[in-house]
Amino acid sequence: MVATQPFLTLPEVRRAAQRNLPPPVWDYVSGGAESETTLRRNRAALQHYQFRPRVLRDVHAIDLRTTFLGIPLDLPVMIAPMGSMSLVHPEGDVALARAAARVGSVHWLSTMTHSAPEDVAVAAEGRAIFQLYFRGDHAWAEELIRRLEAAGFRALALTVDSAMYGRRERDLERRYDPRGVGGRALNVPEDRVRQMRLTWADVEWLKRTTRLPLILKGIQCAEDARLAAEHEVAAVYLSNHGGRQLDHAPAPIDILAECVDAVAGRAEVVVDSGFQRGTDVLKALALGARAVCIGKLAAWGLGAAGADGAARVLEILATELRVAMANLGVSRLDALGPDLVRRVCDCR
Asked: What is the pLDDT of residues 191-237, one digit of tens each?
C-alpha cells in the first residue's frame, strides 16, 4: 500500500501525479481540445461565483450525506467516467471503484475501459454506473446492457456530447493515441458514425430496453435539459467533457441554474467539468446540482497513489466541503440554495 497521509492538499496530489506519469499520459489526462479555451473557461467560470455567507447559525454538525437516484452517498461527489484509466495505473477503473466505495461514493465506468465491468461492480460494492458510447447496433447494445444489469450496475448514462472525437492537440503533437493502447475489456465496434447518428429516438429505445434508470451525459443548454426531462430520463448530466470535445463550449457552472429551472424537478441534475475544490462543489450544490462528478482530479489521485490516492482526493474534498459549509453558515445540503451564491464580474 502506498502511504497517502502526506497528501494534505489537492495541489500536492496533482504534483505527485505529474511526477509519476509519463508525459504523454499526463497530457492525455490533463489536456483539452484545440486551444483549450473550454478547459480554461471551466476553471475561470467557477471563480465568478461568490458566496453570501450567513452567520450566527449552529453549524457544529455538518452532514454531507445525500442520494443520487436512490443510491446513498456519504458525500455529494462521485468519480466521473474516464477512458483508458489503466494508462494511469495498472488497476485502472477497479482502483477507482474501490476508492469510491471506501468513502461511500459512486464510480461511473466508461465504455472505453480496460477493466471488466463485473470486476468494477464488485470493487464498487454496488455503487457503479455505466457510461455508454453507442458504437454498435441495437443487438450489440442490448447484449452489453444485459451484462451490466446482471453485474449489478445501478444506472446507464448515454453520452450525447461526443458525435466526433475531439481534437486534443497535446496528444496529436505527441503522435499519441490512447484509444489504441492496451486493448479493451469490452467488445466495442469501431463504428464511430453510429455515435454521430444518435437522436432522441435512441433515448426512447434505451428506455424501452433497460430496467436501469437512464441518464443523459453531456447536456450543454437549457433547451436540451428540458427535452431530456420531457423524455422522462432519470437524470440530466451537465458536462462539456472536461473541455475535451468542443472548444469554446459553455462552462457547466454557467448554465447550471437555467438547466435546473428547465428540468423543473422532473429529473435529478449532476454536473462535471472543472470542479477541483470543495468550494467548487458547494457552488454547484447551491445552484441546484444533486451532486458533482470529478474527472481529472480523480485521475490525478489515481496517478499519485492508486486507489489510496483517489480515495484521498475524495477525503480532502469532503474536508474542504465541511469547512466551506460551516463558514457559509450551512450544516445540511438541503439547506443550500441560490440565495447563498451570486455571480460577479470581478473574480480576483
From this structure: 789 999 999 999 999 999 999 999 999 999 999 999 999 999 999 99
CA 176 – CA 196 distance, rounded (Å):
24
The question of whether 231 is a catalytic residue gets the answer: no
Indicate the residue type of 95: A
Residue keyed to cell 480523480: 298
Distance CA 65, CA 199 (A): 36
> β-pairing, 71-73 with 66-68?
antiparallel
Cβ pair 323, 32 in contact under 8 A: no
Distance CA 319, CA 148 (A): 33
- Active-site annotation holder among 60, 114, 241, 248: 241
The CATH number assigned to the domain with range 10-343 reads 3.20.20.70
63 has a pLDDT exceeding 70 = yes
Looking from the CA of 61 toward its CB, the CA atoms found within 13 Å total 1
What's the one-letter identity of residue 294?
A: I
Residue corresponding to grid cell 466508461: 110
